[in-house]
């Protein structure tokens, strides 16, 4: 049985990531609604976002022509069997610059250093979706990364409404244990004690803040309010964690993966765990980031991923880079196939209710450009099978956040009219 050690630091981090029960037909049937009313289990939407720090070489990623996906480019060949369930989008970006320092804006459209003027800072699309899941699932959002990397070359994929980056769970066995490890009564009692201790600390913070407010000017009061909002989010996460302590975790056939292993082993393992988490309704939102320092020796190469990304259009660098990128797409295609093979209680493939985004905040790593980001969207009930080419002229550009607005609205966030820097939606995707 996998061990599950609890300490305050780990659990506070868990509260930030946030923590569900199997998605069984009997559960759906037990919650059947009268005719005309939606069912909370059958009608749920799910979201997965996959990111890497260097993007994909445009010439091998983007189809040659707009319109129906007929002949896929070399890099996307592993996705050929999924052509009718996917869309490739060109000429979408966030209008930001900064090379590696702007990659973290991939899911938000806003650089953290420029986020202070936005009401929700540089909150990412996954976290907006996750907010709607609090109380409904054990873990509203999984934030995972396939190993560690240095800060400059990592994706820093997920950000909160207060501009805080959520550190990813970087070991597959930790993620598995968080989701599926059986806990003893002693472990549950310890978790409950730690949560209540943390809740008591928050109560003290709120009392001190109330006493301080009257002595502050308008500017400082706004800063305090922002801080208190982040504290309220922690309070909400603690309440969510507490209500799930005594509910049994799903039983799955997969066993806890061993620690370590090669990148070639870890990437598919993370995908398998995320698929299980979605299947058991343990979460409805997940992000997975690929590290910039992934060990290319695991793929039979000498050198390093970052160096290859500065290819200068030379075959000597492009060939190994293609192998690295192709492996990522192969595993993404395998994940999509797995979601297609899993049946939900209403008899549909899990992919139909799961929107899966693959891309990067880097458009061209060789020139450090953050323009024309590589974007692939699969599943989720959208109108697929096409290559959508947005206007290239800067005066007519369509923000990538338009896509995120469309995704959020499909997810069930109907009140989101324009996510962050969006100017509208992507009507081309609406079935």
From TrEMBL:
Residues 1-30 form the signal peptide. It comes from the Bacteria. Keywords: Signal. This is Secreted protein containing DUF1552.
């Amino acid at each position: 049985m996998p061990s599950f050690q609890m300490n305050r630091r780990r659990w506070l981090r868990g509260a930030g990531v946030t923590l569900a029960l199997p998605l069984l037909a009997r559960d759906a049937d037990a919650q059947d609604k009268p005719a005309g009313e939606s069912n909370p289990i059958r009608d749920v939407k799910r979201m997965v976002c996959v990111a890497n720090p260097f993007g994909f070489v445009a010439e091998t990623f983007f189809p040659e022509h707009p319109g129906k996906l007929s002949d896929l480019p070399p890099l996307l060949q592993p996705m050929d069997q999924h052509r009718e369930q996917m869309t490739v989008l060109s000429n979408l970006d966030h209008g930001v610059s900064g090379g590696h320092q702007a990659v973290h804006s991939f899911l938000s459209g806003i650089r953290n250093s420029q986020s202070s003027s936005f009401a929700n800072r540089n909150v990412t699309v996954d976290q907006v979706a996750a907010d709607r899941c609090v109380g409904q699932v054990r873990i509203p959002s999984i934030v995972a990364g396939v190993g560690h990397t240095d800060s400059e070359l990592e994706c820093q994929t997920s950000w909160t409404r207060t501009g805080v980056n959520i550190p990813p769970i970087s070991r597959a066995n930790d993620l598995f244990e968080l989701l599926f490890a059986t806990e003893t009564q002693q472990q549950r009692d310890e978790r409950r004690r730690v949560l209540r201790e943390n809740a008591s600390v928050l109560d003290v913070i709120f009392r001190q803040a109330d006493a301080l407010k009257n002595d502050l000017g308008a500017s400082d009061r706004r800063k305090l309010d922002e801080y208190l909002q982040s504290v309220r989010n922690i309070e909400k996460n603690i309440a969510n964690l507490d209500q799930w302590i005594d509910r049994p975790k799903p039983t799955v056939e997969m066993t806890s993966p061993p620690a370590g292993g090669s990148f070639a082993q870890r990437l598919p393992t993370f995908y398998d765990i995320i698929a299980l988490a979605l299947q058991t309704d343990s979460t409805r939102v997940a992000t997975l980031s690929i590290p910039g320092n992934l060990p290319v020796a695991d793929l039979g190469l000498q050198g390093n991923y970052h160096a290859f990304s500065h290819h200068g259009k030379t075959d000597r660098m492009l060939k190994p880079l293609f192998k690295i990128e192709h492996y990522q797409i192969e595993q993404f295609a395998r994940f999509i196939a797995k979601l297609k093979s899993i049946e939900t209680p209403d008899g549909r493939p899990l992919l139909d209710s799961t929107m899966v985004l693959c891309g990067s905040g880097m458009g061209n790593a060789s020139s450090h450009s953050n323009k024309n980001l590589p974007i692939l969207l699969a599943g989720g009930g959208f109108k697929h099978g096409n290559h959508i080419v947005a206007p290239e002229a800067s005066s007519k550009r369509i923000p990538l956040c338009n896509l995120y607005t469309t995704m959020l609205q499909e997810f069930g966030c109907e009140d989101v009219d324009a996510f962050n820097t969006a100017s509208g939606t992507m009507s081309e995707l609406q079935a």
